[in-house]
């Protein structure tokens, strides 16, 4: 429906146009680099500094003509339907370069800059320009693209609509399949001893009930998760931690028959992905080993992943994924704040800035994580429900993909997680 004209031929430009028009707006376009290729009657998006009569002009800021990624100041302006504009321009129809702005956020260029990592080596929201500007909760690329399409429709007297559809996906990280069961004699006795020494009678009682009286384990919330997701007709993806035991990897052994049976049962009706361990951070060999463990259990290839503790380092993490056969990532979000790390709520292909090319890896951004709301942001159940509903409404308004990160253990409705099933259900409910 659109002819995009620009003398720019860079990989950055081609990627940015695809991101905005195809992956977010879902409309058809073709790109031409010479004015002679423009045909009579074309609806021309003019991405250049020269005028073309009847075209819709977006003035290039310059970012897509270069290969640099070093730190620089980004100009901005609040207001209007776009909420916030980045990479301001003049003498065009938008007042900012939507393609450069979208490329900057989606490529995660700022994560290539020097920053102070958190205690787990992660890029935290405190470094993010969107957080500093107070708009982390907005899927800006989607908002920009929706307004852009509306302006194009008005300019060319069209009535095009995005072909994207709002979708909710339930994702569960299984860091520790059970609280007490299937831990082995040594770990079970040790756990009981620690509980008694600390005077934690309720935990000791719960252990006895689970191990001796064979009552339900507190972390065994899988039936509840499946039942509720089914009532909302929402698909689920479970990410299993199968790394070697360590300080931050407390999972049941991948060799345990109980865990093997659990994974096989869940895989019958749900998608499963690998949850690369804390220790595997930038270790391709270890991640490949853990992936193979899951594939042997399921008997099929596994192409989805989310890193344990959300430990990603760009572009290294995504390069390793491609090397070992992972095609889709679900780690794009922050541990310390809810919102949209890449300013987008639509699946999109990752662009490797160092290699200056679009990759085949598809990134699925998530909007919030259970621990973020409870342990980082310190929200009450009621405030967390309100936050989740707000984020979901924002995603629904731009026909995006709404993903929350939950753990089987946080849905036990006990201790600090008492009442948090209300938050989980608010995220999955079609309301």
Mean pLDDT: 94
Helical residue percent band: 25-40%
| End-to-end distance | 34 Å
What is the makeup of the main sheet? 5 strands, parallel
Report the uncertain regions: none
Q: Kindly report the spatial arrangement of strands forming the biggest sheet.
A: 9-8-7-15-14
**Structural class from helices and strands?**
alpha/beta
Quickly give the CATH architecture of the largest domain. Answer: Alpha-Beta Barrel
Q: How large a portion of the residues is in β-strands, by DSSP E?
A: 5-15%
Looking at this structure, what is the CATH superfamily of the largest domain?
A: Glycoside hydrolase/deacetylase
* Beta-strand segment tally: 15
Radius of gyration: 24 Å
How would you sum up this structure in a few lines?
With 431 residues, the chain is of the alpha/beta class.
Description:
The structure is a single chain. This protein is of the alpha/beta class and 431 residues long. It has 2 domains: 2-156, no CATH class; 167-179 and 218-428, Alpha-Beta Barrel (TIM Barrel), CATH 3.20.20. It has helices at 11-24, 98-106, 129-132, 140-156, 185-197, 201-211, 222-231, 257-269, 284-298, 316-324, 370-376, 381-397, 421-428; strands spanning 2-5, 29-32, 44-46, 56-57, 76-78, 84-86, 167-174, 235-240, 271-274, 304-305, 328-329, 348-352, 357-363, 368-369, 401-407. A 5-stranded parallel beta sheet has the order 9-8-7-15-14. The chain has a 4-stranded parallel beta sheet with strand order 2-1-3-4. A 4-stranded mixed beta sheet has the order 10-11-13-12, sandwiched between helices. The radius of gyration is 24 Å and the shape is elongated. The two termini are 34 Å apart.
